[in-house]
Amino acid sequence: xxxxxxxxxxxxxxxxxxxxxxxxxxxxxxxxxxxxxxxxxxxxxxxxxxxxxxxxxxxxxxxxxxxxxxxxxxxxxxxxxxxxxxxxxxxxxxxxxxxxxxxxxxxxxxxxxxxxxxxxxxxxxxxxxxxxxxxxxxxxxxxxxxxxxxxxxxxxxxxxxxxxxxxxxxxxxxxxxxxxxxxxxxxxx
Length: 189
Prior knowledge:
Elements: H1 3-8, H2 12-27, E1 35-39, H3 45-50, E2 56-61, H4 64-74, E3 80-84, E4 97-103, H5 112-125, E5 126-137, H6 141-146, H7 157-167, E6 170-176, E7 179-185
Parallel strand pairs: 1-2, 1-4, 2-3, 4-5
Antiparallel strand pairs: 5-7, 6-7
């Protein structure tokens, strides 16, 4: 994570954006169920909002320092478990979670192939009828400059729809504005 990210991600402004714009849209009409897996939580702005809506939230963070910081932040909350791990190779059995969420993380996955693995893993660990939801940034010159010295591999909305379908998701909703907010489901058994 570059210095610009290090300042933005834990800021109250970023949390307000996720809590006011992204998460209410992504979760509208969705029954989250008791167990939620969050992929790439960073400093935990979405974690903080989501943990109050489920019985158990597992946050998988690839950066060991960020994972340790997140574990320290939420260590007193028995609903939250933080794991240092790889979202493209999750160590959970099939159908382990009611919901999987990822907020503005996919563009930090360095290749399309690895992004495909993240989508496949999200699908695999979802229970039948479960929701995959979240957001990501859209490509722009400004964001490209913001990500200087950092991984920046944004998803393209129309291709993302097909990629979600190819991973097995159905009932896909994409909200495209200054970012992309998505909600989709694994078919019920």
